[in-house]
């Protein structure tokens, strides 16, 4: 009897068929390894966090998809801080993911001296409130975790900076943290009053008299929720999470916007936020949500670069099609090359 040797491609396909169920049933794997970042020290004039309320609290979401961006963002924050040891990071991860322990280990290995906490976010908290948007990435439950920061974070934390994972700081985060928030406002962010505000809501919203009157007594302007300074106590006292959820519930009944978690924030806060200089959110560097075309910086100085939009710098760099401004992100990339994986 003659046995024919199966071709290599067939063997590979058989292997994938057999092994895929095993991979699918195990923990999420982060297929990236990162170099250890240097330790950053406080300058001599930094106040002690044990005797003063001088800690700077930074909150970010953390997941396997954007972990490379998060690593670069953390490095940039520490590198440009005059008091890096006074920064406390608060990372929000999905409780439904199996990768939380791996994410923790990745952060600890890359930043051995980092002062951080990880908090699980229950996807079911918001899953029933999410409506489909123009880009599927915006529908991830973790994208809505910023709405629940005052509930997730411990009560003793009174003020926090929320940052997206696709940012790079080139200035001291303590300056942003010192943004004054007046008594009649809850959060601070750069506003963009030249943007077409009507674009963020559907004709259904604007044609409904009771809904369009939402902004009648406010000078409502667009702001990007990827960079916010939040007074957590005022948020808690005002029940603003519930107010945002009410708009999301209405969106499920009648489509009043198209763009993920941003419009509910605009509905609740636009026209009543503390101003922050535009230098703290040079946003839109990822391009539009459809094509992800390259964009230039806005005029003026820069303290924070934000690759909001479809295109992410690490994806474009790996694909060999970087935008010119992606060169500003690359120096903070801690990814090990494949040649260093075994080193």
From TrEMBL:
<comment type="similarity">
    <text>Belongs to the glycosyltransferase 8 family.</text>
</comment>
<keyword id="KW-0735">Signal-anchor</keyword>
<dbReference type="GO" id="GO:0016757">
    <property type="term" value="F:glycosyltransferase activity"/>
</dbReference>
<dbReference type="Pfam" id="PF01501">
    <property type="entry name" value="Glyco_transf_8"/>
</dbReference>
<keyword id="KW-1133">Transmembrane helix</keyword>
<feature type="signal peptide">
    <location>
        <begin position="1"/>
        <end position="25"/>
    </location>
</feature>
<comment type="pathway">
    <text>Glycan metabolism; pectin biosynthesis.</text>
</comment>
<keyword id="KW-0472">Membrane</keyword>
<keyword id="KW-0812">Transmembrane</keyword>
<dbReference type="InterPro" id="IPR002495">
    <property type="entry name" value="Glyco_trans_8"/>
</dbReference>
<keyword id="KW-0325">Glycoprotein</keyword>
<keyword id="KW-0732">Signal</keyword>
<keyword id="KW-0328">Glycosyltransferase</keyword>
<keyword id="KW-0808">Transferase</keyword>
<dbReference type="InterPro" id="IPR050748">
    <property type="entry name" value="Glycosyltrans_8_dom-fam"/>
</dbReference>
<dbReference type="GO" id="GO:0005794">
    <property type="term" value="C:Golgi apparatus"/>
</dbReference>
<dbReference type="InterPro" id="IPR029044">
    <property type="entry name" value="Nucleotide-diphossugar_trans"/>
</dbReference>
<protein>
    <recommendedName>
        <fullName>Hexosyltransferase</fullName>
        <ecNumber>2.4.1.-</ecNumber>
    </recommendedName>
</protein>
